[in-house]
Amino acid sequence: MRFHILTFGCQMNVADSDWLSQALISRGWTESAEEDAQVFLVTTCSVREKPEQKVYSLLGRLKGYADRDPAVFVGVGGCVAQQIGEEFWNRFPFVRLVFGTDGTAMVPQALERLVEDPALRVSLLDFLDHYPEREQPEEGRVGAQAFVNIMQGCDNFCAYCIVPFTRGRQKSRSSDAIAAECESLVRRGARELTLLGQNVNSYGQDGHGDGTTFASLLRRISAIPGLARLKFTTSHPKDIAPEVVAAFGELPNLSPQLHLPVQSGSDAMLKSMGRKYTRERYLGIVRDLRAACPHIALTTDIIVGFPGETQRDFEDTLELMRQVRYESSFSFKYSDRPGVRAEKMNFKVPEEEKARRLAVLQDLQNRITAEELESRVGAEVDVLVEGTSRMQDGAALFWRGRDGGGRIINFPSPLPDLTGKMIRVRILAAKKHSLTGETRGEPW
Ligand code: SAH
Ligand code: SF4
Ligand code: F3S
């Protein structure tokens, strides 16, 4: 059978899609272009209204294929599937499978049954009370960068957020299973591993793990021979342990970068968002991180126009951004989500005002990003090469990769294939969102 996967949303959906693709290929299926697919899988996101809308317009487009060939069908997974569930069958009859995150492990078998029996529909939406292990391939080369799930779900119920409803309660995966997957990936060619979860700092604190804390998990994975880089995402500031902060100064292959979503710089907003930290506490964590690792690259998520946000609250966020000087940030206009606490809050900020605040914030971030990138000129950094660059100019072939801080670096090299290699680069110039440089020495 030929399948095609379309992925929306966060890294966890990307990881789920990657796993589905591998699992189907190992069962003899073939990944194909959209036009040739017999089965479509869509992993969906409902964190804001816009990504949710994208799913419906995509399904409108896929209907065209199903109309032409009635054997073609679609499986919808991820957060919109969990939210809308079997409703999908009424709106889009060619959707014959809906699955949530906990159901992903069973999707390959379900697809085989759906192919055999054209009258069947399957729903895999139940939340389990343990982390559902998925079959792991033991052989076959993998790319230089790999993602490893360490937990599922979230218990925080931030007032604006739908994730705890769509991903269920937090469930840590056993540290032995995580280590086994990481070791296998490194053996099969991974140079960089990213540990994934909605709130990795509370790994092991949900009664589903095996007593391992996140800090000791980091130490264990970092010690895998041959692992060049270790990263993790996402971190909730309220749960970051001093041992994790210290790890940035202690573990040589732990990348000097941290995505630490702040959401707002106003204590009043943090309180009504239910984030459980203050601006002062957040800034204290930033200070400690920089003491442990002076060049750590910090990035964040920010919401503007949360219900009740005044101009003054917004200015507190701008001021915090000036103080922390993030390398980059993802910023969003608050978006009402069905069933979350903020949906019922008063003093909603008008759409035009949210748009204005977002533009002001992004303008400030762009200036800081440019200054921070400029300050890297002259540095020598190790780059993990991701592929050829979109930026080609003149005779030499340009390559693209990232330094330990996650910054994009373009550089020319006549070497035949650098993808997946590490190479030392001297930074020569800064562009708007990236750096350019020249190589120093041989790749490894
Ligand atoms: N677990 C991660 C984030 C998951 S959602 C964490 O806690 O950091 C990614 C980001 O989407 C959030 O950090 C937040 O900035 C944004 N977001 C979530 N719900 C939103 C909403 N209703 N409106 C606007 N942005 C939202
Ligand atoms: Fe959403 Fe908050 Fe959980 Fe992050 S920590 S997924 S923002 S509820
Ligand atoms: Fe979106 Fe679900 Fe991830 S809502 S951000 S796909 S957890």
- CATH fold group of the largest domain: Rossmann fold
Strand order of the largest sheet: 2-1-3-4-5-6
Number of helices: 13
CATH architecture of the largest domain: 3-Layer(aba) Sandwich
As a percent range, the share of helical residues equals 25-40%
- What characterizes the major β-sheet? 6 strands, parallel
Strand content: 15-25%
> What small molecules are bound in this structure?
S-adenosyl-L-homocysteine, iron/sulfur cluster, FE3-S4 cluster
User: In CATH, what is the class of the largest domain?
Assistant: Alpha Beta
Class from secondary-structure proportions: alpha/beta
Low-pLDDT runs: none
Number of DSSP-assigned strands: 19
Shape summary? globular
Mean pLDDT: 95
Could you give the distance between the termini?
Answer: 39 Å
Can you give a write-up of this model?
The model has no long low-confidence stretch (mean pLDDT 95). The strands form five sheets. The chain has a six-stranded parallel beta sheet with strand order 2-1-3-4-5-6, with helices on both faces. It is built from 13 helices and 19 strands. The chain folds into four domains: 2-124, Methylthiotransferase, N-terminal domain (Rossmann fold); 136-255, 2-Layer Sandwich (Transcription Regulator spoIIAA); 258-375, 2-Layer Sandwich (Transcription Regulator spoIIAA), CATH 3.30.750.200; 380-439, OB fold (Dihydrolipoamide Acetyltransferase, E2P). The two termini are 39 Å apart. The protein has 444 residues and is an alpha/beta fold. Bound molecules: S-adenosyl-L-homocysteine, iron/sulfur cluster (SF4) and FE3-S4 cluster (F3S). FE3-S4 cluster is lined by residues 9-10, 12-13, 45-47, 78-79, 162-163, 166-167.
